[in-house]
Design a protein that fits this description.
By secondary structure, the chain is mainly alpha-helical. The chain is built from 33 helices and no strands. The relative contact order is 0.03.
Amino acid sequence: MAEEAAAKMAEAAVELLERAARRDAALEELRALRVALQAVPPAALRARLGEHHLGALFGLLAVNDREQVSACVSILERLLQALDPLYVIQNLREELQKGLLHPDDSVKILTMSQVGRIVEDSAALTEILHSPELLRQIINCIGGEKIAVAKEAIKSLSRVAQSQEGLEALFGSSLLSDLRNVMATSDVVRYRVYELIVEISSVSAESLNYCANSGLIPELIGELTGEDVLVRATCIEMVTSLAHTPHGRQYLAQQGVIDKISNIILGAESDPFSSFYLPGFVKFFGNLAVVDSPQQICERYPVFMEKVFEMAESQDPTMIGVAVDTLGILGSNVEGKQVLQKTRSRFQNLLSKIGHQAKNAPTELRLRCLDAISSLLYLPPEQQTEDLLRMTESWFTSLSSQPLELFRSISTQPFPDLHCGALRVFTAIANQPWAQKLMLNSPGFVEYVVDRSVEPDKASKDAKYELVKALVNSKSIAEIFGNQYYLRLRAYLHEGPYYVKAVSTTAVEGAE
């Protein structure tokens, strides 16, 4: 029965396609075709789909009627999925080229997403590389006004560069000068090209080599030390992305870029505009420390740690926010925690300030403080040595005179984000025996944990469930909490995050 219905739908769709192919389909029929195609699997149409259908639909895009264009884009999106990429490039090359010049952005995006599909097929890729005109048009789309079009162009070109032939085409031919021409459009477009280059460089050491030899990566790095502080701020984000891969970090180290960034942080003291770019430069080191070795980075570039502490101790909320984020990143693994512990009382004092900010700062900074505190205090079970447990306990007590009560008061506030942030702090320490004892000895705390009525929304219910899960999965919980509480927590876990207790009501005769 279902098969019959599907066959009927396919028939209806083919009939509408025929009308469209004769170009006498009214807008209503195009809409009906769009709906019909949603119900028919593209594969069912493959055998019935001819070049004349697609050519006609692309032809129908050439009108100044947004509704018609929109209907045809949806139809083509669906139909082209059914076709082999090699078929598309061999038979619809001209249509794709026109699509890239179309005034409507949705047509450009449709065309570029098709090119993205084509270049992932090795046979079709060879075809596309033989028609550089298509790639040239896509490069020009990076300079388009609409960010959605530019993003699709970047996505499409980074797919081209996934293969050796694609890299050759982009960097070993006249297309490189097209990239340079489009870069000259404006600062914004120049950054978009850098974004593409960084994305390509991240794939492999070889693709990074192509980008470096083209001169584009050295230019991006040159802008880090340029005079324009806003350009610096934008470029450091891209260089940070480059440092996410081992080959990217190796290149930056070999080129002396990491030393350069360290020197810029040193020189920031005397630069009245340093607040524009300093946050990005400090974040760069925070990210580098986590993927590399926190200890080596902090020892080799002492200015980084010094600057993070200075920023955290300052009165500027922007600087405090970046410093707190960076401390959270740095302290997310044990080696980073040990680096922070070596600064002894300076870090303990800073924790007290972070605890104060978590309670009193504007909401956005409070959230960042709560996230950093969670990251700093979490210890995986296999790393819970006596020394490290003593360290996280001393950090927790440095946050406030009564830290457990502080986070509990934050968790009872009617702001879901803050409420969940505080629950995450409890979850971070939930598997550490010292924290379990604190929770047990805090009047009403365990009751609060198993009370479902205090969680108003899905995010809060999920956050509370994670806390219960962390407690139940801890080896020490049954012994510390005792059987009664342990069984209640297990029951909560078993019932799931959204359990609602059924309330039975009995009707009483004569009651109002």
